[in-house]
Amino acid sequence: MSTPRTVTVPTTDQGTVTVPEPSWCVGHAEQPVDALVDLGHRSTEHPLGRPADPVGIALVSQYPHGNGPRQIGLFVEQAALAITLDPDAVRELAADYETAAGQLRRLAGWVHILRAGEGR
User: Fold this and answer.
1) Interatomic CA distance for residues 18 and 101, integer angstroms
2) What is the pTM of this model?
3) Is 116 in contact with 72 (CB distance < 8 Å)?
4) Which residues, in sequence order, are CB contacts of 67 under 8 Å at separation 6+?
5) Which ranges in 1-120 belong to alpha helices (H)?
6) Host H or E run for residue 20
7) Which of these, 64, 58, 30, 55, lies nearest to 44 by C-alpha position?
8) Does the pLDDT value for residue 15 go beyond 60?
């Protein structure tokens, strides 16, 4: 059994706090934390579709002290797309969305497993 991970962050409302950090969290160096409710855990980003030209990104996230839902979820951001395409490009885009759909289903399975592990 591994030792539970923790992270210590300064907050303006609670001072310096130490909280549990999930194993899938990539850290907090790039995340400014003002109030404790702003402290969120994030996984690596997963490009959706083709990695070189994704139609979006997805990442596992959780805001355990936030004002909204506190469960682990999947944050999904779609790429901005406003373009006129020829038939071949439309087919390529459709294939990218089909690939992204499969990737999202796999990530949904991962989130399901992570949520089940929270109950232990």
Assistant:
1) 37
2) 0.84
3) no
4) 37
5) 87-118
6) strand 15-20
7) 58
8) yes
| Those residues with Cβ within 8 angstroms of residue 76's Cβ, 6 or more apart along the chain or in another chain | 48, 56, 57, 58, 104
Question: For residue range 25-54, what is the model confidence (pLDDT) as tens digits?
Answer: 998 876 667 899 989 999 999 999 999 999
Query: What number of other Cβ atoms are within 10 A of residue 102's Cβ?
Result: 10
Which residue is it, tokens 């999930």?
22
Distances (CA, A) of 19 to 14, 39, 67, 99, 103: 12, 10, 17, 36, 31
- List Cα–Cα distances, 95 to 71, 84, 99, in angstroms: 32, 17, 6
d(CA 100, CA 97): 5
Per-position b or e across 8-32, b if 16+ CB within 10 A of its CB: ebebeeeeebeeebbebbeebeeee
Nearest-5° angle of CA 42, CA 115, CA 10? 35
Q: Is 44 helix (H, G, I), strand (E, B) or coil?
A: coil
